[in-house]
Amino acid sequence: MKNRGLVSVLLLVSAMLLTACPEQTTINQINGDPARYRGKEVLIVGTVINSFGALGQGAYELSDDTGKIWVVTQRGVPTKGARVGAVGKYINGINWSGRSFGAALQETDRKVR
Questions:
Q1: Can you tell me the distance from the alpha carbon of 42 to that of 64, in angstroms, rounded to the nearest whole number?
Q2: Which of 5-14, 23-32, 101-110 has the highest mean pLDDT?
Q3: Could you tell me which of 70, 61, 67, 71 has the C-alpha nearest to residue 31?
Q4: In sequence order, which residues have a C-beta less than 8 Å from that of residue 110 and are 6 or more positions away?
Q5: Dmax of the chain from CA atoms?
Q6: Is the model's pLDDT at 97 over the cut of 50?
Q7: Homologous superfamily of 22-112
Q8: Among 58, 104, 107, 100, which residue's Cα sits nearest to residue 84?
């Protein structure tokens, strides 16, 4: 009986964790159908190829095997060459510090490997 309760709790916790994280998306999928992703939270995994920031804010360009996208952040930027999993809302047509980035991801969370 105790095992059945433990299994039920583990299944419930697993389901909650899986629904809390967005599914990994490629940059090509976003660029191919931007209307589908606009305003939605996505997860992109890639390598930082360019970054700049000041006073804890900035932007970095993330590249996966399918394309590149800018990620705008309210915290420090990862270093060039870092492998990053960026979670955020897809936005189209962002201007930041006088630069136009076109499509970008407004970062809400990040994992650096």
A1: 14
A2: 23-32
A3: 67
A4: 73, 78, 84, 85, 86, 87
A5: 63
A6: yes
A7: Nucleic acid-binding proteins (2.40.50.140)
A8: 107
Q: Are 27 and 64 in contact (CB under 8 A)?
A: yes
**Cα 94 to Cα 91: distance, rounded to the nearest angstrom:** 7
Q: Which two tokens stand for residue 105?
A: 């991801």
Do the Cβ atoms of 90 and 40 come closer than 8 Å?
yes
The tokens for 43 are 């997860």
Specify burial of residue 67 (Cβ count, 10 A radius: 0-12, 13-18, 19+).
middle
Which is it for the CA torsion 21, 30, 90, 35, positive or negative?
A: negative
105 forms bridges with which residues in the sheet? 71, 90
30-87 confidence digits (pLDDT tens): 988 888 998 899 999 999 999 998 887 899 999 999 999 999 999 889 999 999 999 9
SS3 85: strand
Residue 71 carries which side chain, given as an amino acid letter?
Answer: V
